[in-house]
């Protein structure tokens, strides 16, 4: 993998993080291919090969439905989230496909409370080259704890 591709991957991760941290929900599905997988799964289930996930979306259409839910149907205490994302470890890279693993931490701040650690884990990503640039074919968010506070509203 050359520096140009690595920089493009870092830019994809930074743009993704900026969009979800700023609540720019219209942009979120555009980071993915049409036929994609987005899953948020506890570490124990992932390591045991168990399919149960907290959230599992299998196409860009399902991602858009999730955004509709965030805006129109889910009722929750508002909060802000902020991602801290490590440097990606490249597991595989060939012409049009990159497989990477990246640690993350998500902090959550409710307007009237102190910031707390919301979710910590690693992204297992398969990124592909498209005419529009690099996009996620698969993003699996494997979180370390078996528990998450309350419910998962926003993308990780």
Q: How would you describe this protein?
A:
GO terms for molecular function: oxidoreductase activity. Keywords: Oxidoreductase. With 156 residues, the chain is of the alpha+beta class. It has a single domain, classed as Nuclear Transport Factor 2, Chain: A. It is 25% helix and 42% strand. It contains three helices and seven strands. The two termini are 26 Å apart. The model has no long low-confidence stretch (mean pLDDT 94).
Short description:
The chain is 25% helix and 42% strand. The protein is built from three helices and seven strands, in the order αβαβαβββββ. The two termini are 26 Å apart.
Give a topology summary.
Elements lengths: L2 H19 L10 E11 H6 L6 E3 L2 H14 L6 E6 L3 E6 L2 E13 L6 E15 L2 E11 L13
GO molecular function, one term: oxidoreductase activity
EC number: 1.14.12.-
Protein name: Salicylate hydroxylase
Task: Considering the chains and any ligands shown, give keywords for the structure.
7 strands, 3 helices, SnoaL-like, globular, 7-stranded mixed β-sheet, 25% helix, alpha+beta
Weakly predicted, low-confidence segments: none
Named CATH topology: Nuclear Transport Factor 2, Chain: A
Counted up, domains total 1
Helix percentage: 25-40%
**What is the total tally of β strands?**
7
Instruction: Report the principal-axis shape.
Output: globular
Named CATH architecture:
Roll
DSSP summary: helix tally = 3
SSE ordering: HEHEHEEEEE
Measured on Cα atoms, how large is the radius of gyration?
15 Å
Through-space gap between termini:
26 Å
Keywords: Oxidoreductase
Domain SnoaL-like: 4-139
Pfam families: SnoaL_4 (PF13577)
InterPro entries: NTF2-like_dom_sf, Rng_hydr_dOase-bsu, SnoaL-like
């Amino acid at each position: 993998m050359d520096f140009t591709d690595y920089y493009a991957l870092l830019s994809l991760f930074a743009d993704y993080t900026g969009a979800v941290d700023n609540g720019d929900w219209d942009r979120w599905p555009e980071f993915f291919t049409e036929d994609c997988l987005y899953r948020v799964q506890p570490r124990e289930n992932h390591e045991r090969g168990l399919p149960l996930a907290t959230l599992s979306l299998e196409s860009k259409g399902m991602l858009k439905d999730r955004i509709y839910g965030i805006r129109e149907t889910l009722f929750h205490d508002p909060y802000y989230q902020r991602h801290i994302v490590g440097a990606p470890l490249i597991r595989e890279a060939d012409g049009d496909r990159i497989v990477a693993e990246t640690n993350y931490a998500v902090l959550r701040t409710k307007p009237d409370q102190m910031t707390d650690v919301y979710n910590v884990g690693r992204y297992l990503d398969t990124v592909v080259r498209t005419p529009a640039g690099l996009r996620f074919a698969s993003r699996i968010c494997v979180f370390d704890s078996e528990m998450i506070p309350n419910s998962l509203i926003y993308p990780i």
